[in-house]
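Troubleshooting entry. The earlier prediction with magnesium ion gave an output that would not parse, so I re-checked the input for stray whitespace and re-submitted. Clean input:
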Amino acid sequence: MNDAPMIEMRGVSKSFGTLRVLDGIDLTVDRSEVVCLIGPSGSGKSTLLRCINFLESYDTGEVRVEGRLVGYVEGNGRRRMPDRALREIRRGIGMVFQHFNLWPHMTALGNVAEPLIRVRGLAAAEAGLRARAMLGRVGLADKEGEYPARLSGGQQQRVAIARSLAMEPRLMLFDEPTSALDPELVGEVLQVMRDLATEGMTMMVVTHEMGFAANVADRIAFLDRGRIIAYGPPRHVLHESTEPRLRQFLQTYHERNNF
Amino acid sequence: MKLQVTLDAFPYLLEAAGTTLWISLLGIALGQVIGAAVCLCRVSPLRPLARFGAVYVSFFRGVPLLVQLLLVYYFLPYVGIDVPPLVAAIGSLGLASGAYVCEIFRGALTAVPKGQAEAAQSLGFPPAAIWRRILLPQMLRISLPALVNELILLLKASSLISVVGVTELTRSSHTFAASTYHPLEIYLTAAFIYLLMNLCLAAAGAMAERRLAAG
Ligand SMILES: Nc1ncnc2c1ncn2[C@@H]1O[C@H](COP(=O)(O)OP(=O)(O)OP(=O)(O)O)[C@@H](O)[C@H]1O
Ligand SMILES: [Mg+2]
C-alpha cells in the first residue's frame, strides 16, 4: 500500500454536458514530488485538480491516492463511495484555492482550529495550540485574532495554507494560489510553498508562475484541451519540447511578461 | 378625547402587548427552525424532499394566515387533537413564518460563495458540520435585515390570533373599546404600542447587524 504512488490517474475523462474537459488523463505523482500544471485558460487544470479530492466527479478512468480509488467503490463500476470513506481520503489531502476561501466569520486562528475540532475531533484548547503553531510557521503569529477581511491577500492565502497544513496532509493541491494577489504579495506565498517543497511535501500546483515552476517543480505537465500534451522535467517542458501548442503558450507568456 | 380612558386601560393594554410580543417571538423562533429545516429540504438533492419543501412553501405562503389559524383551531379538535388556543396561535405563526424564512434562507444560501463549503469539504468536514459551522452563520448574517423585517410583519400579523380567543393587544383593545365607548382613544393607544414595539425591534435588529458586521 505504502509503495503506491501518491497520485495515480489512469484514463481519466470528464465532460460538462457535451464539453469534454478532461480527455484521457494519465498522470503519476510520486511521494515528495512537486508537479506543476500549466496550460491555457479553460484547458481543464482546475477540473483535473478537483478530481483528485473528488470535489469534481470524473466519468471514466481511475484516480488513486496512495493506492486508494477516489470517489467510487473499488471494482463496482461507478458506484459512489460512502461519504465517510471519501472524507477519510480528503482529510489526507490539503487544498489551497485561488480565492483563499477562508471563513469570514472566524478569526485567522478560528479558521485554522476549526477543522482540527470538527474533523480531527481535538478539544478546543488543543486545537488552538496547534493552530497557533501553524500560524507561526507561515509567519502570521501576530495575526491570530484578525478576521480575514482585515488581512492582505497574501496573509489570507498563508492562513489558508496553514489551515490545510494543520491537518497534516500527505499531499497538497494548489489551484492558482497566487493569481488573485497583487504582484508584491506573490513572493511571500511562493516562499511558503517553496519551504514546503523543501521539507518533502508532495505537491500538485496549478500555476502561471513560470519562475516557480522552473525552479521548484520536479515535473511540469502542460495541459491543453483536456489532454496532457507535454510532461517532464522543467528544462524539457519549458525549453526543449517542440510541441507547437506549448511553444505558442510559452511565447504568449514571454510576450506578456517582457512588457 | 378623554385621557382618563387611556390611562385606565393602559396597564391592561400593556400586559396584552406583552402577550403579543412573546407569542410573536416564539412564533419567529419556531419559524426559524422550521424555515431552516424546510430550506434544507428544498435544496436537497433528494427529489421527494425537495418537492415537499416546495409544496410547503406554496401552501403556507399561498393561504391567508387568518384562514390557516381558523383551520388549525377548528380542524385539529375535529380530528380529535385538542390544542389550547395559545399553542394553536404560536404553531400557526411558526408554520406560516417558516415558509417565508425558508425563502429568505434559500436566497442567503445562494449568496454564500460556493468556495466556502468546498474548503470545508476538502478538509473532510461532515455535511452537518458544514451546515452548522460554515453555512448557517453566514446565511444568518446575510439574511438578518430580511429576518427583522419578517419579525415585524409577524408581530403585526399576530393581531389575527385574536380570532382564536387569545387576549393579545388587538383583542384587549377591542374589549376596552366596546366597554368604554371610547374606541378612538383605545385604538390610538394600541397603535402607539404596536409602533413602539416595532421601532424597538428595528433598532435591536440594526444593532445586531452592526455587531455581526464588526465580527
Ligand atoms: N461546473 C461546471 N459546469 C460547466 N462547465 C464547467 C464547469 N466547471 C468548469 N467548466 C468548463 O470546463 C472547462 C475547463 O474548466 P477549468 O476550470 O478546469 O479550466 P482551467 O484550466 O482551470 O482554466 P483557468 O485557467 O481559467 O482557471 C472550461 O471551459 C469551463 O468553462
Ligand atoms: Mg482554473
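This one parsed fine. The interface with chain B takes residues 53, 55, 83, 87-88, 90-91, 93-95, 97, 99, 101-105, 114-115, 118-119, 147, 160, 163-164, 167 of chain A (CB under 8 Å).
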